[in-house]
Amino acid sequence: MPEQEEFVRIIKENQGLIYKVAALYTEQKQDRNDLYQEIVFQLWKSFESFRAEAKISTWMYRIALNTAIGQLNKRKRRGREVGLEVLPQLVADHSSEILEERVKLLHSEIQNLNILEKGIILLLLEGKKYEEIAEITGLSATNVGTRISRIKEKLKSKMTNQ
Q1: CA angle, residues 107, 13, 91, in degrees to nearest 5
Q2: What is the CATH number of domain 1-84?
Q3: Mean pLDDT, residues 79-99
Q4: Do 45 and 1 contact (CB within 8 A), yes or no?
Q5: Alpha carbon 84 to chain centroid distance?
Q6: Integer Cα distance of 25 and 27 in angstroms
Q7: Which of 12, 27, 61, 77 could disulfide-pair with 136, CB 3.0 to 4.6 Å?
């Protein structure tokens, strides 16, 4: 059972990645837990086919985002809307109320992005390079750069109007 042990090790090492994707596409804790489990299940189903041509995190992001988007689309077809809950706390110093309010506003504006834009901005905030975001999303690196520029402009415009 070395394959199972290897899989468990990889999941443990990258559980933060899975949680971030689950948190990005759900509002309720139960939905987040369900999505987390579904992502792990989909990773397990695909584990045999992982050929190590890409980094393990790239492969995991691709499956996690596709699973999350698929679940979101299922919920929308059922008439249930899912938004962005809360990204990890970006401000360590809670004493700065103005900065904290701006972060909340940014989170709110990210929530209004479409599902692909949310995924791209998550990967960007994770420090992924355009090429890796392209590999994860299936877009070209040029397209990723264009989309990131547009997302930044959209967020900047919304933030300055508030």
Answers
A1: 25
A2: 1.10.1740.10
A3: 44
A4: no
A5: 10
A6: 7
A7: 61
Q: Which two tokens stand for residue 130?
A: 């355009």
Q: What whole-number distance in Å separates Cα of residue 100 and Cα of residue 86?
A: 13
pLDDT at 105 over 50: yes
Written as six digits, the tokens of 90 are 């970006």
Contact between residue 22 and residue 40 where contact means Cβ atoms under 8 Å apart: no
Please report where in the chains the tokens 């992005």 appear, as a residue. 113
Q: Where are the domains of the chain?
A: 1-84, 86-162
d(CA 59, CA 47): 10
**Nearest to 20, CA basis, from 41, 1, 35, 42:** 35
Q: Which CATH class is domain 86-162?
A: mainly alpha
Give the model confidence (pLDDT) of 121-150 as tens digits: 989 888 888 999 999 899 999 999 999 999
Residue 100 near residue 94, CB atoms below 8 Å? yes
Looking at residues 92-103, what average pLDDT do you find? 56
d(Cα 61, Cα 75) in Å, to the nearest integer? 21
Residue 39: exposure state from Cβ atoms within 10 A (0-12, 13-18, ≥19): buried
Q: What three-state secondary structure class fits 63?
A: helix
The residue type at 101 = E
